[in-house]
Amino acid sequence: LLRAPDPAEHLVLDCEYVIEPHETGFVLKWLHNDVPIYQWIPPHRSPSSLNRMRDHVNRTFTVGNEAMHKHRALALMHPSQDFAGKYSCSVHTYQSFDIKSADLFIIVPESGFVLKYHRNLNDLVTVVCSVYGIFPAPELSLWINDYRLENGTVYEIPVTDGLYDSSVSVQLVLYESLQPDDVIKCMLAVPGTEYRRAKETVFVGACAGVATVWLKTQEFNELISIFHLFFGVPVGVRA
């Protein structure tokens, strides 16, 4: 699991192995999603990069000075979210063969994470949770206290540089699905990883029959912007 790799640094994946004294004809290969991207045949041939990773592999990177091990690691330059996936290291000689694989998750943390709610005139409360500029696409869930809401509407929008903006919204009936002082929570998760984030707020109730927007003007304007982004239609409040 790699979070927000620095493009100026190397992403290094190591491959450890043992070569028995009687073994000959050693070849090491790295594969990305089962496609060969790196090959080394020591001691007389230098490493070579292959296919789509050709310009991203540092072929001079070394691990120690042992002749049969120093170029075993895969050093990827200018890492980005495109480097995520399954990596496999295979080693074989004329006498034996072995391969090991592991999944690499690269996470670009969100640039924004917003949880808002709005009560309209007919005792419906709209809850919207939005996350911006994240990779990979996250899973969002809404909760009331410790109960997960299953009827949310999810919107997922690819944006620049392969990142995602995502939103989940739900409408709740006041005094049925939602009570004053209930805790509204949004959970963000990246599937397959332990990356988790949470936002929560306390619902501020009102007396029955009183139509009130329980948000400051600035907060409500932000909510309107969220509706414009994810629903594509203007949202208004009747006086």
UniProtKB/TrEMBL annotation:
InterPro entries: Ig-like_dom_sf (IPR036179). This is AGAP011809-PA.
